[in-house]
Amino acid sequence: MVSASMRNLTYMYVLLTGAFLLGFFTNHLNPALNRWRPPCICCDRRLTADTITPLRDNRTFIIAPYIDTRIQKRAVRILSIIHHKEVKELYCWFCCTVNKSVEVSRAQIDILGDRFGFPYGTTNLVCMEPPDCHAKYLSVHTSPTGNMMQLPLFRIQNQDRSANFTVCISTMYGNYSNVLQFIQTMEMYRILGAQRVTIYLNNCSTQVEKLLQYYVAEGFVELIPWPIEQYLTVARRWHHSMEAKDIGYYGQMATLNDCIYRNMYRSMYVLLNDMDEIILPIKHRTWDSLMESLQQQNPDVGVFIFENRIFPRTVATDGNFSNTSSWKSLPGFNILQHVHREPERPGHFNPRKMIVDPRKVYQTSVHNVLKSIGGSKRVSVETALLYHCRDPHQNNLPKTSLIEDKTLWRYNASLITNVNMVLSQVDLQS
After folding, report:
1. pLDDT tens across 246-263, in order?
2. DSSP letter string, 229-252
3. What pTM does this model have?
4. Which end of the chain, C or N, has fewer beta carbons within 10 A?
């Protein structure tokens, strides 16, 4: 015979179990919220340290999540690379700080238009943070259910403004070793007004690596590791028909978009260009005065596009500058010797580059933005141009057909001083 005390204990157990299950289904499977809420799981664990993090499907690669207040007060935009056909659903798992719970919402998958035929494309995953959540961390998963502890954890980024101008260098790859031009370019950026240069590093020479570490220690360079070939086959050509790989140009589109969101709330302007390019003012001395003038004339514009001009490395002019003898032993090109540019080629594509207000750009390609607020403005070469010191496009042009342009020489005294100061502090010989 079962005692009365035993029956009471059994009755209490049934009541408590029923209450727990009722609370679970009420709180965690609330159809009115259109999201699944897993039971409370601690999010206080190690964050993902990698720049590129693959999900278990090996078709989704997360770069970083960023707050985007332009969509909704607490919208989160996650920069990623996904397979355009094989990924259909993704979910954000928010670690809410208010009630220490995990809440899940489905991501809107927005693959950028300029995929150039490659199977993988830069993608915006947009998730709306649940009300009263105030998450600092999240995970991304292919399913709305599962074990939170088995998912990678990301910090939701975006910081207060700390720079007027940030230069974004999309990808440094191919064992980049142009030491002299690299130092000169960094110092020209500094002279023109950059407070930060963000570089996505795939690989470079030992000497360039020493210089990168010097600039990182100074706080001038933000170095983002970019080991994309560990996850995808990468092409050096711009279209899949030219080189049938997973993704083009070492994922250049992904890095440019990530750089815009990384700097959205911490930099007034972002410059999108390559390592051998400098946006060079003609009517002004610095980017500050250039952009002040351009914004006064175009107050609603958030994208300013600059015409590319090739200064071929094959044509050199000796300016007879003093204090540059130590430069001769360095690998690379001396940009001060290249002051003749090719004439524009009518009917040919001109790969322009941009200065943008990152808060007005949703998506960018390499030479133009894809989605933005306020439109764009092409800047005349009489105001500023993109100084591009590289191999010639027009190989058969004699020097007499080139246009002499010594705008760069306006900065020669400061540039020589700055380069020599760097060389005095970095041992490039050992």
Report:
1. 999 899 999 999 999 999
2. GGTS-EESSSSTTTS-SSEEGGGH
3. 0.85
4. N
